[in-house]
Amino acid sequence: MNLETQLRKAEITDKDVIWDILQQAIERRRKDGSTQWQQGYPNINTVESDIEKGFGFVMTVGGEIAVYTALILNDEPAYSTIEGAWLSNGEFVVVHRVAVDEKFAGQGMTKKLFDHIEDFTKSHGIQSIKVDTNFDNVAMLKILESKGYTYCGEVYLAGGIRKAFEKIII
């Protein structure tokens, strides 16, 4: 099954679907024994704020929302202090809150999402992509490695230490 995927800005009418996908992801993280996303974040207010600020994006498969993420340009205060070093000091896209609908789990959706994010970054003339994840988020760590992201160090975010990665795009 090779349905076309598209990345688009989330709209307020997408809010309930996005929140459902995030709740599925929160539960998956819990079942995996992870501490990530287990303290009431992200929540419905996070989704509403992402959409209002223009940060919320959805990847659709055949028109159906399959993945949610927040893409933030040049703004993640936690990234100004890193135990380690970023690869660059130029403009960057921050990737937060990646969540895949259960219906699309195990189909390589996150890798496709990162392909779209790289295209988005290039098309906006932005130098790099920065992303962080929990130490115990094995699936995301494997994806970042497979997509060529470089481990840069640790950042303190959302009440915990996160592994930080960067990929130079242009």
Task: Tell me briefly what this model is.
Helices cover 30% and strands 32% of the residues. It is an alpha+beta fold. Strands 1-2-3-5-6-8-7-4 form an eight-stranded mixed sheet.
How would you characterize the overall build of this protein?
The protein has 170 residues and is α+β, with helices and mostly antiparallel strands. The protein has one domain (5-168): Aminopeptidase (3-Layer(aba) Sandwich), CATH 3.40.630.30. Helices cover 30% and strands 32% of the residues. It is built from 4 helices and 8 strands. The chain has helices at residues 15-31, 44-53, 109-123, 138-146; strands at residues 5-9, 56-61, 64-73, 83-84, 92-100, 128-133, 150-157, 160-168. An 8-stranded mixed β-sheet has the order 1-2-3-5-6-8-7-4. Strand 2 and strand 3 (64-73) form a beta hairpin. Helix 1 (15-31) crosses helix 2. It starts with a strand and ends with a strand. The model has no long low-confidence stretch (mean pLDDT 94). This is Ribosomal protein S18 acetylase RimI. One of its GO terms (cellular component) is ribosome. Residues 5-170 form the N-acetyltransferase domain. Pfam families: Acetyltransf_1. InterPro entries: Acyl_CoA_acyltransferase (IPR016181), GNAT_dom (IPR000182).
List its salient traits.
globular; ribonucleoprotein; eight-stranded mixed β-sheet; 8 strands; 170 residues; alpha+beta; Aminopeptidase
Fold blueprint:
Elements (H helix, E strand, L loop, with lengths): L4 E5 L5 H17 L12 H10 L2 E6 L2 E10 L9 E2 L7 E9 L8 H15 L4 E6 L4 H9 L3 E8 L2 E9 L2
Parallel strand pairs: 5-6
Antiparallel strand pairs: 1-2, 2-3, 3-5, 4-7, 6-8, 7-8
Helix pairs in contact: 1-2
